[in-house]
Amino acid sequence: MRAQLEALMAKVLEVELKDADAVEVFRVEWLGRKGRMKDLMAAFKEAPNEQKRELGMLLNQLKQLIEERMEAASSGLQSGIASTGSGEDYSRPAGGIPMGTHHPLSVVRKEIIGIFERLGFTISEGPEIEDDYHVFSGLNFPEEHPARDMQDTFFVDREPDLLLRTHTSSVQVREMEQHDPPMRLIMPGRVFRNEAISARAHCMFHQIEGLYIDEDVSFADLKQTLLLFAQEFFGPDTKIRLRPSYFPFTEPSAEVDVYWGLETEVDKRITKGTGWLEILGCGMVDPNVLEAAGIDSRKYSGFAFGMGVERITMLRYQIGDLRAFFENDARFLDQFRGQH
Ligand code: PHE
């Protein structure tokens, strides 16, 4: 009889009570003089005494359920959770509302900036829509120089001199024009390149640029600053190496790798079998760039570096596909809950 009562409860929950007629039919079927409850009461009386307690409780529950369903239907609560008569306790406090999380790019951006702030760098920002001068010419990219093709540029149709900045180095130029050394700046921002979107490239991403200009700034200062950054960010035993490279606005220039390891198959794959991973570009600010901005290159020297926030975040959390950052899939973002 117990199983029968449980099956009946499920049945009561399923019945559709669309209108007053349906409620009346339901009432007669269950509570009427010849209704099912009557039969059940009779069966209950015949049941063995030791089962009566449990069966009595179930019978009561069934009756309550029938009454609740009729009440909910008659008071017009036909839609929503209440009318499903799911037997839930509606007085129970609601579950917590899930809070948003910090985006992994924000977490990493903040951490990188924090490290440089502790070294005395201050934040500076500039416009995303720039002119040719601040993105290219002022950074020692000659007209028609093939180096301009290193960065596929989005131009503004109506105003060919305007473009979306391809790197945050444009902020360097603005700062050098406006301020005298010494300066120690960290420049985060969004940049744009005309690239097909894939797992490894996007037409919009984030960079953080650093600039330090003073008397007697040397390549050794640059190296030490970057080593300190790498060890703060990736761990105290992190090793870095500098490879010669080329940027029009720095001379000499280098690319910096961190040692990642070669132990696992994943290590081998992401480091292409070398154990090293590139994290940024850097160099000594080219004297032409200083002079163009009105800074005496015989008195002052400086270094600059630039890194991609997406790239560093992918390394930190071993994320394989850049597009995940911009799809806002809650299942992806939820993994960074608790990071600040
Ligand atoms: N602006 C360079 C880029 O976007 C990075 C860089 C910045 C290199 C500063 C050297 C110095 O690729």
What's the layout of helices and strands?
Blueprint: H1 2-14, H2 20-31, H3 36-46, H4 49-74, H5 80-83, H6 104-118, E1 122-123, E2 129-131, H7 132-135, E3 162-164, H8 169-178, E4 183-192, E5 204-214, H9 219-234, E6 240-247, E7 250-259, H10 265-270, E8 276-285, H11 287-292, E9 301-308, H12 309-317, H13 324-327, H14 330-333
This protein binds phenylalanine.
The site of phenylalanine has 11 residues, from strand 8 and strand 9.
| Small-molecule components bound | phenylalanine
Strand order of the largest sheet: 1-4-5-9-8-7-6
CATH superfamily of the largest domain: Bira Bifunctional Protein, Domain 2
Shape: elongated
Query: Biggest β-sheet, characterized?
Result: 7 strands, mixed
Detailed description of the structure:
It is a single chain. The protein has 340 residues and is α+β, with helices and mostly antiparallel strands. It folds into two domains: 83 residues, no CATH class; 233 residues, BirA Bifunctional Protein, domain 2. Helices cover 41% and strands 19% of the residues. The protein contains 14 helices and nine strands. It has a seven-stranded mixed beta sheet with strand order 1-4-5-9-8-7-6, sandwiched between helices. The chain has a two-stranded antiparallel sheet with strand order 2-3. α3 runs antiparallel to α4 and α6 crosses α12. The longest helix has 26 residues. The chain is elongated, with a radius of gyration of 35 Å. It starts with a helix and ends in a 7-residue tail after the last helix. Phenylalanine binds next to β8 and β9.
